[in-house]
Amino acid sequence: MKNLLHNIYENVKACVRNNNELSDTFNLELGVRQGCILSPFLFSFFINELATQIEMNCENGIQLHPDIVHVFLLLFADDIVLFSSTVAGLQKLIMELETYCDEYKLKVNRNKTKVVVFKRGGRLAKNEKWQYRGIELETTNSYKYLGIFFSHCLSWLTHAKYASLQAQKVMIGLYKQLNVFGDLNISSYFKIFDAKIYPIISYGAEIWGLSHLPDIERVQLQACKKFLGVKHNTTNLMVYGECGRYPMSLFMSIKVIKYWLKLLNMPPYRLPKKCYNMLVLFDRNGHTNWVTAIRKFLFSKGFGYVWNNQYVNFKNLFISELMRRLKDMYLQEWFENMSLSSKCLYYRMIEYNLDQEMYLSVINVKKFRTALSRFRCSSHNLYIESGRFRGIDRENRICKLCDQCAIEDEYHFLLICPVYTRLRNLYINKYYSVHANQHKFVALLSNRNKIILQNLPMFVYYAMKFRAEYMLEHNISYM
């Protein structure tokens, strides 16, 4: 097969060099057309010769240390990346590409050809201009290569915005399709998210996964809030607590560490291994780079000995232990942030673990499930929340539907306010409403009895509906 492809390649090259047009008959006999399985093989022969020519004629590439190795270009299918450490060196590479394309009648898509100058900041110098066939190439601050946006300052914010936008487009399409099938249970909902959305937002995380990228986290939060039916400004801590989901950053970190372990076991002649050795050398000399982020990450999680050893005996066991450590540390951070948040005053009483709440799978009617989710996450219109956005002090957010001069919060609404007595007697066990206290309030919202879990959201839904009608009928306003 290899000899056959080589013979085909030599015939094609001879035709090109003799300025002969490849006839349709020749194309049909060989099957060499766009999309044909032979096309990438033949193109690889052409492109490999370009690589050889550039290595022979050019001197200023990117030098890898401590090995004195020059890298001039990267090849993937029909995509070519040329790079150099000098302005003249890059122009020389472009001229070699121009010469090669002239010889073999190849064309470069000038619209997709851009130049990115990687630097810490500042404007480009006057001489930082490059031409192809006498026409100046466009210089840009970022460029997408193999699905990842590389910015001139090596920031991943541009890629994060692009990935999150692509994920949101897919999510919108999924929501339209899911509307045909009706409401999904939470298990199926997040299985679809993990299968369709996660690969989009985690693409290339091996190199950017340790960076703080809010746009990536926002995609999962939007999916969680969409299922819960809560407002977009609902506290993220409560959203994670209800759905039992961990931030995307945990899983991105694991992808980085897995790739790092792969690099450690890679043969020394491979270019990624050479680049890694260079980054380790720079890190030891005080330069911050990708390796620095890994080293600091491992030490901060209590795995500094793994970095020092640069070796792991049992990879799967180590990854499992690292994931457990990351989840435990996030749980501590989650509890601490909830204790400091005024919005989580009641929520921290009813939520003890970052596990998926039982009611999300027990309640099959979406409107009831949404009503309870909004109530638990303080994503409702009670005065305790609406007064917050109007700048009213907490002690002045008094319920106007009754004469008890009590703050209209979740506890008052659920167990105290006499306006909802009829509904309360219908849906809530009298044990909780008679001689109500904070302990009973917490016990009711934390209950795992299926009958109670099915009745509680019905009370919340109809009581909220009754509240709106009552305020309209009696001309009550909190403005």
Describe, in plain words, how this protein is organized in 3D:
The protein is mainly alpha-helical. The protein is built from 23 helices and ten strands. A two-stranded antiparallel sheet has the order 1-2. A two-stranded antiparallel sheet has the order 3-4. Helix 1 packs across helix 3 (38-57), helix 8 crosses helix 9 and helix 10 (248-264) runs antiparallel to helix 14. The longest helix is centred in the C-terminal third of the chain and has 26 residues, at 315-340.
In short:
The protein is mainly alpha-helical and 479 residues long. Helix content is 58%, strand content 6%. Strand 3 and strand 4 form a beta hairpin.
Topology of this structure?
Blueprint: H1 2-17, H2 24-30, H3 38-57, E1 62-64, E2 69-71, E3 73-76, E4 79-82, H4 87-103, E5 114-115, E6 131-132, E7 135-136, E8 138-139, E9 142-145, E10 148-151, H5 157-181, H6 186-201, H7 205-208, H8 214-228, H9 236-243, H10 248-264, H11 271-284, H12 290-300, H13 304-309, H14 315-340, H15 347-350, H16 359-362, H17 366-376, H18 383-389, H19 410-416, H20 421-427, H21 430-433, H22 438-445, H23 450-473
Parallel strand pairs: 5-8
Antiparallel strand pairs: 1-2, 3-4, 6-7, 9-10
Helix pairs in contact: 1-3, 3-4, 5-6, 5-8, 6-8, 8-9, 10-14, 17-23, 20-23
